[in-house]
């Protein structure tokens, strides 16, 4: 009979795996925060363009990253079953699908200006965003490859290197972005184009660093990850695609909710869009903690599921949820207690628009405090369900919650009820509430009885 680990043992194991992932996610997010801060000091129109451009890149990335994210539970369960060959097969085909998706998505970035104008963005914001995306979009392939290798290494509990490579990328991005946006240290002043070039450079650096580590670390060489990489494995390709596409669509449903909110905020005004971008960056930084815990939960759940150890799986899930709830409580206190000092980090306080951005951003952070527990719950539930390869029904839950409930609620509260930006964010709360309740119910009602994927 399998020994049930104590709650402290589960917590220690989860934090040992999860804290480096939290750190790497925070560092990854700081790449975007750095761009926001630098462009916030450069100009409001440029800031709004990078906000909408960066969020557009992220929406496409999050769809493609479903294949990369599928690698994590597949590798974790293969390790739990002791099937080493399956580790290599799943990861290789995850890399293949990442390359394919990155190539076919680039035309969206090339013609992004026209697309954004059709979606109601101001012409000057759309033009700047297109300049940014035509350069940054070239980084989609390396960005997705990085995500795949991160999933592979995380499933093998090699998370420290992911953290340190990402931290190094933050400093590299900050230096390149500052130099190219403002034209410092002998570099030309390139504005938003400089931010795009910095993003591309960092993605290339990161994939080279992780690729060398994953391929040549002595402890990992027995997986022979890149040996005969060009040879297709159609069975494993279908395997990763079937699990990864619903993951990507689930993530797209959630990120699309926030992207739609950015588009609708752009209808209200440029200053409001800039404040929305800053508030969303702040909230997203907090979300990275929950995402890291969710990833660690996926790995541990996958290991337990591979070994058919349902008792430890359930107890470990409960501990993960409790830890995430504690983090959410601290975030609520921060957003309600210190909104002004946090927002000031992102703008030039001497600019004419600063008082408006500060006031509007503080209101948005107050609304954000209302959905911290909901956002934490839905991402932890997704991590648990992915660990047991349940991705299709969660995809439909997310789609209905965010697009049938959340986005219409945002539109009605913002424009029909007249609540503007705060009403728009209140709709996000409603969508997240539906998703978190349904996803948590699915996990706890199914797994305790012995799991069988639908």
From TrEMBL:
Residue ranges crossing the lipid bilayer per the database entry: 51-72, 93-111, 131-149, 161-183, 195-218, 239-268, 274-296, 317-337, 357-381, 393-413, 425-445
GO molecular function: antiporter activity; xenobiotic transmembrane transporter activity
The protein, known as: Multidrug-efflux transporter
Main location: membrane
Keywords assigned: Antiport, Cell membrane, Ion transport, Membrane, Transmembrane, Transmembrane helix, Transport
GO cellular component: plasma membrane
Membrane topology: Multi-pass membrane protein
NCBIfam families the UniProt entry points to: matE
Source organism of the structure: Gemmobacter aquatilis
InterPro entries given in the database record: MATE_fam, MATE_MdtK, MdtK-like
GO biological process: monoatomic ion transport
Subcellular location, record wording: Cell inner membrane
